[in-house]
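Hello, quick one for you while I still have it in my head. Could you read through the record and tell me how the tokens relate to the sequence? No rush at all, and the record is pasted right below.
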Amino acid sequence: MADLFVAGGIVTALEDAAVAVGRLDAALAGNPLRRAWISWSELDTARRHAGADGRKVDLFRLAAHLHGLPLRLGDTASALERGREIAGLNYAIELRSWMAAPDSEQQRVRDIALDSLRDCRVGQPALVATAQGMLAWLAGQGSRPAIRAAVPLYLRDRGIMIHTLAAVTGGNALRTGPDDPDGFTVRFLDAVRREAADGRDLLLTMEREWRQARFRVDHRAGARSNSRLPAAVDLLAASPLLSITALAEALGCSVEGASRMLDALVQLEVAAEVTGRTGRGARRLYGLKRLLPIRAETTAVQRRARGGPRGRPKRVLTAPFAELADDAGAAEAPPDAESAEPTRLTAVSFDFDALDRLIAAADERTRGVRRLLDRIARGDKPFPTADGTEEPGAASS
């Protein structure tokens, strides 16, 4: 076996990146929140990749746009600015499709990029070979989205990680453009380290929020042995966004019962209705309370609790999945609630097949946006009716 050689300036960056990736990969192993983490990390990765390509996108607005929700636009925004933002959001959704729902052409180009990584510098450590393979691909005018989508697959093939971590691409190394191989490799490794560390922080924050939500339900709702509220909390924590019908399907209960459970969780300040639409056939989406800022980005009419304050809700300016702030219920938290890695809860059993269908619906919305963009590019009508194609976001959640 050939000896692996790494230049001295790369060693420290390589070690830090490898440790960060390993910690994230180990944290995801057997984690019940892995599906939700993958979904949100793919969305945030698409946002970062769009930023590296010169298109600034807000994560919460991207989530709302992906789910087909009408966006609130600033009164002072010009038509050009609005059009530019929608184009950026559509571009980010297209980037997400390379990771979550690639079409046949994307798969073909991604596989070519993956083969190019496999052929590059076999005698180097996997992360270093990935950086140099990416640099060689870009020097040959290869597709940026393709190589970024191929990196997690290559690292899994090399045994660096068990899971395919879409968040770990080293994509931020492309912001300043390629230069000498060693300089680009260090930038790539630093980007991988930050991506893996941010991904692990996201997972720990999701676990902490799940833990606090379960604690509040158990102690404030007087949970009974046959109560389904803990299972509803588990499903909210394990899914990106949840509709009433999706919860009913997953728990095997009636739609009315699922609606009452979600209303109870909102009253307990565990969950938030991130959007609401009035009228027949309205679709209501829910998430744990840290997803509430999505509601400020939509124009949907909000339901007001009886006796509550009038007017539309204030926009919550909080970083996506930032550390949970202390609130009125913090004193009720168990002593180890602030530990770096809280003890994982045992999830209440529910239908993971239903959860898979829920996440598959978000992937189908990604494909719907791509079909829409392709039709516009060909000069066709955006929403033909002859083939029964629906608008993006029309798929049920």
About this structure: Confidence is low (pLDDT under 50) at residues 278-282, 301-308, 312-343, 388-397.
